[in-house]
Amino acid sequence: MALHLTWVFVFGILGNAVSFMVSLAPLPTFYQIYKKKTSEGFQSIPYVVSLFSAMLWIYYALLKKDAMFLITINTFNVFVQIFYIITYFYYGPKKEKIVTVKLMLLFNVFGFGVIFLSTFFLSNPSIRLLVLGYICMAFALAVFAAPLAIVRKVIKTKSVEYMPFTLSVFLTLGAVMWFLYGLFLKDMNIAVPNILGFIFGVLQMILYAVYRNHPKKTVEESDLKLQLSDHSVIFDAAKLGSNVCSDVSNNNGRDDALNKV
How many other C-beta atoms can be found within 10 angstroms of the C-beta atom of residue 235? Predict the structure, then answer.
């Protein structure tokens, strides 16, 4: 029993450490937004959805009562995503500000409110936790499946400039740590989604190895806007958050491509 709890602690610490770094990965992007005083065509939906995801997992962890590491990383992520959203809202154009408010109301107020009210008042605590766990797992699976848009873009362009290798490595490591944490905690709602996260992480690294030496294509500005749109709807994830962090590489790739035009 003591050894079992030790492994839960170890993988919880490692999972938190990796997820902390992934959560902070968009900071260079927001520094550029701050310097240029514009949101540069980026969209707020990845950060809104990441905030919604963190709120769900905190609610789940509080009901579960023995998942402290889920609380620590997702509480940190709540504050980080709020900072990103406020920064984006401050420097974004009026149209994007309205869209951001609508997304916040849809996901973080209405969506979370419906889930909370439909589960919190269930008389059986076990059923309540089971239902909420299935909701969290389904959402996490959708989050981890979202990088398929990046995979499609890499295969189409035969270029990995929009899929940084370091990020793929950290996301894969994070998936492994959280899978093992969920496994030793005997919580399949945590473990199962990270199996998919690991598979897609390995797939991205394989694609990187295949296309890393392939000549870069010149990307027109209209294509760049499309790529930014593609990445903006990829829900990052655990975290939950790979798409959020892919904005960093988008920013660099966008500048390089515009220099070529």
Answer: 25
Sequence-separated (6 or more) residues with CB below 8 Å from residue 128: 63, 119, 120, 122
Name, in order, each residue with C-beta under 8 angstroms of 244's C-beta and a sequence gap of 6 or more: 25, 26, 46, 47, 50, 84, 236, 237
Is there a contact between 25 and 250 (Cβ–Cβ < 8 Å)? no
User: Total structural domains in the chain?
Assistant: 1
Question: Which residue range(s) make up the domain with 198?
Answer: 1-240
Contact between 228 and 43 under an 8 Å Cβ cutoff? The reply is yes
pLDDT digits (tens, 9 = 90+) for 108-159: 999 999 999 999 888 888 899 999 999 999 888 877 776 677 788 888 888 8
Separation of CA 192 from chain center: 16
Within a domain: 59: yes
Q: Is residue 141 part of a domain?
A: yes
As a residue count, the chain comes to 261
pTM beyond 0.90: no
- Structural domain includes residue 184: yes
Query: Is residue 184 a contact partner of residue 10, using CB atoms and an 8 Å limit?
Result: no
Query: What's the burial of 179, exposed, middle or buried (CB within 10 Å: 0-12/13-18/19+)?
Result: buried
CA distance 242 to 22: 8
Our measurement of the distance from residue 46's CA atom to the centroid of its chain's CA atoms, rounded to an integer in Å, reads 7
Report how far apart, in Å, the C-alpha atoms of 30 and of each of 36, 40, 238, 254 are.
10, 10, 19, 15
